[in-house]
From TrEMBL, chain A:
Keyword Transmembrane helix (UniProt): yes
UniProt name for this protein: Metal ABC transporter permease
SUPFAM superfamilies (alphabetical): ABC transporter involved in vitamin B12 uptake, BtuC
Keywords: Cell membrane, Membrane, Transmembrane, Transmembrane helix, Transport
Automatic annotation (TrEMBL), chain B:
The protein's name in its UniProt record: Manganese transport system membrane protein MntC
GO biological process: cellular response to iron ion; response to zinc ion; transmembrane transport
Gene3D superfamilies, alphabetized: ABC transporter involved in vitamin B12 uptake, BtuC
Record region (Disordered): 293-313
Subcellular location: Cell membrane
Gene Ontology CC terms: ATP-binding cassette (ABC) transporter complex
Annotated membrane topology: Multi-pass membrane protein
Keywords: Cell membrane, Membrane, Transmembrane, Transmembrane helix, Transport
SUPFAM superfamilies (alphabetical): ABC transporter involved in vitamin B12 uptake, BtuC
Pfam families assigned: ABC-3
Family as reported in the entry's similarity comment: Belongs to the ABC-3 integral membrane protein family.
Highest taxon in the source lineage: Bacteria
Lineage: Bacteria, Bacillati, Bacillota, Bacilli, Bacillales
Transmembrane segments: 12-33, 38-57, 63-84, 96-114, 141-159, 171-190, 196-217, 224-245, 257-274
Automatic annotation (TrEMBL), chain C:
Single GO MF descriptor: ATP binding
CDD domains tied to this protein: ABC_Metallic_Cations
Family the entry assigns: Belongs to the ABC transporter superfamily.
Annotated protein name in UniProt: Metal ABC transporter ATP-binding protein
Keyword hit for ATP-binding: yes
Gene3D superfamilies per record: P-loop containing nucleotide triphosphate hydrolases (3.40.50.300)
Residue span(s) of domain ABC transporter: 13-245
This protein's UniProt keywords: ATP-binding, Nucleotide-binding, Transport
InterPro entries attached to this UniProt entry: AAA+_ATPase (IPR003593), ABC_transporter-like_ATP-bd (IPR003439), ABC_transporter-like_CS (IPR017871), Metal_Ion_Import_ABC (IPR050153), P-loop_NTPase (IPR027417)
Species this protein is from: Cohnella luojiensis
Length: 294, 313, 264
């Protein structure tokens, strides 16, 4: 049973990240995802200090706000002339530093483990059950991630055409009256939500892996955005299931194995994708060359 | 505070932090100008599997072995990034994210392997990742000093070459420089700086040591030489102030404090930098608008009088 | 110039006192004009003259210091559906996972409202517009596999799908093949026949007289705006380009034959 819950949690994390990651990499904001996943730390700590509980709702709220702050600061420094990657780097390291300081200042009251923030503890997911009227209805993380996934799917499905146009051609989007900045911040808010719902299970850094690697793999396999999102979901789910069994076989970190499996899948797509694979293209060139020769 | 100057242990830490900030600030300048600011972050994360493998092979916790492991891992990581971007339509930012997270994932898998098997005393290995400036010993400081001097001397000797490949690598190739070798060398130096930095401030924050002083310095000057020195000074200052504040309190770690000091210097630079700073720009924009309004349909007048204003200011 | 609507017809586009500054010096200074309905208008000027900036400011994509834009007598914001825009081809990522028809259908998004999704009707319109630019056979082609000219034609088809009455095109002729250039000009004339107004940022001085009814000469400020025959003269051009043009000697100054411009 524990294996089922762990795989389900992993699959939910991969789904949340997979959908949003597609838009991130198409908008060349892959590393903004990285930044948000790191700077979420102070948001969680502040939410914890204010609310005094590890209640997921407050954490989610705190993290979503700090996600906005991160994006806003990155944008602000970029507008004032800092290179985009430098401004990402400055902002997330500063916020992470604030987070570490807050943890050490309140070490007595905060039972947040830095190791846990970085690596996640998906193996313990099943111990934290929600019970309604005395009945255990499943791990808290699963519910939290399920609700997050529902919100993400609902918002992306409702405003699919706006998100798509904002990603492809923001100038046209603005010209026909789509509030580009609003959709930018909505997307970033969703990324923050996904990150914070996931970080307890897979850790802040591996969230980045699931945000970027499956969508990048899908990007090499299809030429349609809708298909890319679907493939990204499938690849994410495969990674989490295969990652679980690999981890069980090797007796190693489950989250780490999930990302490694995703990495292996990416490598396969990179080499053998029917349309964009390195080996496939080389072979095709060779056959054309030999055909030309005759 | 006084004990900072009397306590020999604190003195070591202070010297170590300053040297670290100085060298990472200098080397970071070139990474920033090559628009590779986040390469430091990638190298720091990618170092993990290298360090783990070095430990598994050698069985000892030695900074020297770790550095070799990290450099090898860093080289594979950077090759991976350029390989992915060259041979597919994946953009550099995504390629960096892929390499960073997959390497780190692999590193964590290896770390759990080490913890679960009988490699003896591995307790320090994961602390290596979070950084422990406060527990630096004189040995660590000697290592740091050596590395800092190595980095500074290398940058001084190769200043003109690094300048050229940061500004226009195509032209450098045309002049007959071996750009690939120089780029690889610069990358090695960054990796060395990162590995030493990881010990002091940890994996996540080490990126700041490379980026933040360099960006701040950019706001004060348009000359590379001045910028490099300034960046080094900002880095050293951040390290020193971070250590100083940390020493005055009971529980605050040095690493985050140094990073936040650097951030404060950065914010100050962004606001008050003489030409690129926000305040300077606001003033310019305000005067442009006012002159525009005052001169109404004025033609060339706006441009020339604005120029005069700039000279007088 | 501000009250040229003598016939009582409201001008499709009237711009007053448009000034845009990126940093210190305005790149577009105090530009005011009013265009006539149903004309093809070429916007001409040297590099850095602020041609694209002017268009972006009119469309609200670039904040202006001062200035007002009226489309058919009303503020631009309430009239977006009447305006079509063809950005420069380099402004988007052609590796985006989508095909030609899909890009054209994006032109309909403004008409679809907040939540409606594109359906069969949008697909039909998209195919029709692709056919008009001679690209119907490429509807399912991934956009990165199209040539530069074909990509430009897809952008034009998308603008057609917007079904606007006033069009802005930012250098549609830049770097395209002869077939595409011909297709674009046929299309422009077709739009004109339908009574639509088109403003085109243009670089090739040799074809200006052939393509456009009116010419707007810009170099930071508006140098001249009027019918091509009377506006596109050597003196005016020298004024706009600051004497950086070479003319064949012996030409009458009213009908210049351009040999080389400083455009790319």
């Amino acid at each position: 049973m524990s294996g089922f819950w762990i795989m389900l949690t992993g699959a939910l994390v991969a789904s949340c990240c997979g959908i949003l990651g597609c838009f991130l990499i198409l908008r060349r904001m892959a590393l903004v995802g990285d930044a948000i996943s790191h700077s979420v730390l102070p948001g969680i700590v502040i939410a914890f200090l204010i609310s005094g509980s590890r209640d997921s709702f407050f954490m989610l709220f705190g993290a979503a706000i700090i996600g906005f702050v991160t994006v806003f600061l990155i944008q602000m420094f970029q507008n004032s002339g800092v290179q985009s990657d430098a401004s990402i780097g400055v902002v997330f390291t500063s916020l992470f530093a604030v987070g570490v300081l807050l943890v050490s200042l309140n070490a007595k009251h905060v039972d947040l483990d830095l190791d846990c923030v970085l690596y996640g503890e998906i193996a313990y997911v099943q111990w934290n059950q929600i019970s309604v009227a005395g009945m255990e209805i499943g791990p808290k993380a699963v519910w939290l991630l399920g609700i997050t996934l529902f919100i993400i799917v609902a918002i992306i499905a409702l405003f699919y055409k706006q998100f798509k146009l904002c990603a492809f051609d923001p100038a046209l989007a603005a010209a026909i009256g789509i509030p580009v900045a609003l959709f930018h911040y909505v997307l970033m808010g969703l990324v923050s939500m996904a990150t914070v719902s996931s970080f307890e299970s897979v850790g802040a850094i591996l969230v980045v892996g699931l945000l970027i690697v499956p969508p990048a793999t899908a990007y090499l396999l299809t030429d349609r955005l809708g298909m890319m999102i679907v493939l990204s979901l499938i690849i994410g789910v495969i990674s989490s299931v295969a990652g679980y069994y690999t981890a069980a076989a090797l007796d190693a970190s489950i989250a780490g194995c999930m990302v490694c499996v995703a990495g292996v899948l990416f490598l396969f797509a990179f080499l053998f994708s029917p349309t964009h694979g390195l080996v496939t293209r080389k072979l095709r060139q060779r056959t054309t060359a030999t055909r030309e020769a005759y | 505070m006084l004990n900072l100057f009397t306590d020999p242990n604190l003195q070591w830490i202070l010297i170590g932090s300053m040297l670290l900030g100085l060298s990472t600030g200098i080397i970071g300048t070139f990474a920033y100008l090559r628009k590779q600011s986040l390469i430091g972050d990638t190298l720091a994360h990618a170092a993990l599997p290298g360090i783990c493998i070095a430990f598994m092979l050698s069985g000892v916790k030695s900074v020297g072995y770790f550095m070799i492991g990290a450099i090898v891992a860093g080289m594979i990581a950077t090759l991976g990034i350029s390989w992915i971007t060259r041979h597919s339509r994946i953009k550099p930012d995504a390629a960096m994210g892929i390499v960073l997270s997959v390497f780190f994932g692999l590193g964590i898998v290896l770390l759990t392997q080490i913890q679960h098997s009988s490699y003896g005393n591995q307790s320090g290995l994961d602390k290596f990742l979070f950084g422990q400036a406060a527990s630096m010993t004189s040995n660590d400081v000697y290592t740091m000093m050596g590395v800092a001097i190595l980095l500074i001397v290398a940058c001084a000797l190769l200043f003109k070459e690094f300048k050229l490949i940061s500004f226009d690598s195509g032209y450098a190739r045309g002049l007959g420089f071996s750009v690939a070798t120089l780029e690889q060398l610069l990358l090695w130096l960054v990796t060395i700086a990162v590995v030493v930095g990881i010990q002091a401030v940890g994996v996540v924050l080490v990126a700041a040591l490379l980026i933040t002083p360099a960006v701040s310095a950019r706001y004060w000057t348009d000359r590379l030489g001045v910028m490099t020195i300034l960046s080094g000074i900002f880095g050293a200052l951040s390290g020193a102030i971070g250590t100083w504040i940390s020493a005055g309190t009971a529980s605050l770690p040095t690493g985050p404090l140094s990073v936040l000091t650097a951030t404060a210097l950065f914010v100050g630079s962004v606001l008050f930098g003489p030409r690129r700073g926000v305040v300077a720009k606001l003033i310019r924009r305000y005067t442009a608008k006012r002159e525009w309004a005052a001169e109404g349909k004025g033609k060339a007048g706006a441009a020339s009088s604005a120029k005069e204003r700039e000279v007088s200011a | 110039m501000a009250t040229s609507s003598t016939s009582g017809i409201i001008s499709p586009l009237s711009v007053t006192n448009m000034t845009v500054a990126y940093q210190k010096n305005p790149v577009v200074r105090n530009v005011s004009f009013e265009v006539n309905e149903g004309e093809l208008i070429g916007i001409i000027g040297p590099n850095g003259a602020g041609k694209s900036t002017l268009i972006k400011a009119i469309l609200g994509l670039q904040p202006a210091l001062t200035g007002q834009t009226l489309v058919y007598g009303k503020p631009y914001k309430t009239q977006r559906k009447l305006v079509g825009y063809v950005p420069q081809r380099e402004s988007v990522d052609w590796d985006f996972p989508t095909n030609a028809l899909d890009v054209v259908m994006m032109g309909r998004y403004g008409h679809l409202g907040l939540l409606r999704r594109p359906g069969a009707k949008e697909k039909a319109i998209g195919m029709e517009c692709l056919a008009k630019v001679g690209m119907a056979d490429f509807a399912g082609r991934q956009i990165s596999q199209l040539s530069g000219g074909q990509q430009q034609r897809v952008f034009l088809a998308r603008a057609l799908a917007q079904d606007a009455t006033l069009y802005f095109m930012d250098e549609p002729f830049a770097g395209v093949d002869a077939a595409t250039e011909k297709a674009i000009i046929t299309l422009l004339n077709e739009l004109k026949r339908q009574g639509k107004t088109v403003l085109v940022v243009h670089h090739d001085l040799a074809t200006v007289e052939q393509y456009f009814d009116s010419v707007m000469l810009i170099n930071g400020e508006l140098i001249a705006f009027g019918p091509t025959g009377t506006t596109f003269t050597e003196r005016r051009l020298q004024e706009a380009y600051g004497g950086r043009l070479t003319f064949l000697k012996g030409n009458p100054s009213d009908e210049p034959l351009i040999v080389a411009g400083t455009g790319r």
